[in-house]
Amino acid sequence: MQPPPGGVYGSSARRLAGAALLAFGLACGGTPRAPETPAFAPSPIPTATFMLPPTLPASPTPVPTDAPLPARTSSPVPSPTLAPAVDSAALRSLPGADCVPPGRPVQSARLVRVLDGDTIEVEIEGRTYRVRYIGINAPERGQALYAEATAANRRLLGSGPLRLARDVSETDRYGRLLRYVFAGEIFVNRALVEGGYAQVMTVPPDVSCAQTFRAAEREARSAGRGLWGLPPPTATPIRIRPTRTPAPTPGPVGNCHPAYPTVRIPPPPPGLDCGDISYRWITATGIRTARNFLDGDKDGIGCER
Length: 305
Description:
Order of helices and strands: HEEEEEHEEEHEHEE
Shape: elongated
Distance between the termini: 189 Å
Strand content: 15-25%
CATH class of one domain: Mainly Beta
Radius of gyration: 66 Å
Number of strands: 11
Mean pLDDT: 74
């Protein structure tokens, strides 16, 4: 296959031919002549040029400094917020509790101990308070049914949380909280009266449930429960000794001793005793002579035997 004229191969052959002619002329002693210029000059072979991408200036590396880092602050932990008090209207739907006035705050409490049938100690928000039940009065220590009323109160309260609602007053004169007490769905004040373990005690101005408690007391009385089932107390007879007012000492009458005004007892001498006279149960004024001993026990009656 012939290379095309003017191509790479034709150009090389012509250069080789020129070089051979020059060498032949020198060998024969002739003057060298420049090779004839071909009819057309070969095109130069383009040289591939590889261009490197421009180098970007390197960013300066930050030098660490000893500047203090900002202090780490922790987010503040919010304090526990007490749940808002439940309105006492929520308690009015419980059995027998529709007398509790609405609009009163209700406190949650934990039972600490039972003192008697109408008084307890509770813990409210970490503090201990003594609570007196509103509108009722249970037996005190030493009275009949004290132990039974205290046990009934403990049984009604149970071990769960309590809810307390006031009427008008916050405390009584002894500093005790005055409250209506609820254990679950049990209205404890009313339940104690209904069971006969407490009587109604109305102390104004805390009288919202007085009518409810009186109705419960009538029911307990008619059923003979608790206090209303006890036998009536029997009166213990008391022997009263008659009071004797001594009569004034009379003067001697005739030949009679003044200590015995109703009989004729001669004054001493001689000395007499009851065996020397026939009188019995005689009035004596308490004058005891040295020799007459008719009223030896000094009860105002001489010679009782």
